[in-house]
Amino acid sequence: DFNSNTSSMEDNRKGTERDSLASKFQSSVTKKAKRNEKKLAQKREIKIPKKFEREFSDGFIISARKKSLHVSIWDFGGQEVFYSVHHLFLTKTGVYLLIFDMRELLNEGNRKETLSYLSFWLRSIRLHAPQQPLIIAGTFFANIQNSEEVLVIDGLLKGLTKTNFPQIVGNAEDNLMFFPIDHKEVIGISQLRNIVEATIYNSGSSEEVPLKWIALLDEIVKKKKGNAYLTLTQVRNLGLSAGLSSIEEQDAAFELFHVRGCVVHLTSTQILKNLIIIKPQWLVEGISKLIRDKTLHPFNEDDIRAAGLEDDLKLMKDNSIVSEDFLEYVWEHDQVAFFVDFMQRTMLLSPWKDDKYLVPSLLNSMFSGQGSLRGFKCIFDFSSSFLPIGVFQRLICLCVASAYIDNKEYSREPTLYANFAEIEFKPGLVFRLLEEKELERISLFVDNNNPKSAAKAYSMVMSMLRKLNYDAFGAGLRWDVLLQTSSGDLVRYAEAKDEKIFPWFENDIQENLVGAQNVDLGSFLDSL
């Protein structure tokens, strides 16, 4: 919580914190600075909150309180499943702080993994918030031996980002692209705090709104005590009391609160629209009740047995398929219809037969028969940009949902792995999808005994990628298309189109692409 009291106290500091890179490595100055820093902290009676509240302050967007900055923390438990719902939490109006352990980059055994992790977060932030400022901070500065090690870390970060991240806010004072800090020894904290505050106030994300909107937000915040969500009717009544008399103005206020992260309000279906989530952590925890790391957070099998759901649990573990009864159990009969609709619309869950659902994120078996795949091949290549976690799983969701609509009784049940799917949409239209994470690409294979289905398969997958790009990735995904010729060569889409490469241009592919932007998911699937 960077509040005004802290800001004024920081202004009164008299140079006791070592902020220049050179002085940070003079041992005598180091010891003295640490002692003085601690004494000053005690003298100023800095109050550390007993816990972090997982909710937004009522002053979150109130421009009148310009000297107050409040930070909310949501706990994702380190689970990769939440990488698939970044679009709900990484907003285009945020200022981002990426924190890493400097020791991990100096440890050659951990360096590759740490760089990969940093690269993922850098690219994810750029994907969802390409214009927003990004500040990088390295922790455990007191454990760093000398300035050369800091420069090594800086060089690794510069090599990782190159010129692809102009939104990074650099450390001009130390001529670094990151801010070395140490919380325990209170090193670099003042400098980072000032940079965060200055970046937020200079980011252009402030917006003037009517006072009655603020009054409405204040009333919503008051309801957080004891409530994770409110119904649309409840919030509309609050809006009327605050002076927002028209539905149009209320909806505009709700949209702003959603964009700014004060609430989560999805409007793609009536079920979703009817619920306004005022504690986003409730949504996070709801998803994690179903999708979680089974080794870290196993289900209580005694409770499962008592509920008579042993077979349902086995079905989920073995096939990633969940029954309606199992969903009622994990969500404790609370807003089950909302969660099912939410996960369908975010393409984390798709209908299966017999009132069951497929959850692709729970698939963990890996397909290893890549060398045996045959047929006409098309590659969707994301290597020039980024293939985020969740793209392939959403693609499986859309494929299964489409097959379910076309043929409620599958003539051949899909074969599904974490990185592979073979799906029959109708007799004569079978295709296989393979994700290759290291190469950052998804390959489509179509049986070569039915060349007429190649163009149809391509148009379906391309339409699905465009749909999930608009709905879940802010239209930020970029990919190239390579099509295989009859001789086995791979050529780019434009060349294949110009030369009418067989079998991909038996029909005009572009005319077969289904509209994806601002289209309801059900209507989209019907039109494939």
UniProtKB/TrEMBL annotation:
SUPFAM superfamilies documented for this protein: P-loop containing nucleoside triphosphate hydrolases
Basic and acidic residues biased stretches: 10-21
Catalytic reactions on record: L-seryl-[protein] + ATP = O-phospho-L-seryl-[protein] + ADP + H(+); L-threonyl-[protein] + ATP = O-phospho-L-threonyl-[protein] + ADP + H(+)
Pfam families xrefs: COR-A, Roc
Stretch list, region Disordered: 1-40
Domain of life: Eukaryota
DNA damage keyword on record: no
Swiss-Prot/TrEMBL keywords: ATP-binding, Kinase, Nucleotide-binding, Repeat, Transferase
Domain Roc: 1-203
Protein's UniProt keywords contain Lipid metabolism: no
EC number annotated for this UniProt entry: 2.7.11.1
Molecular function terms from GO: ATP binding; kinase activity
PANTHER family membership: C-TERMINAL OF ROC (COR) DOMAIN-CONTAINING PROTEIN, PROTEIN TORNADO 1
Listed name of the protein: non-specific serine/threonine protein kinase
Organism: Aplanochytrium stocchinoi
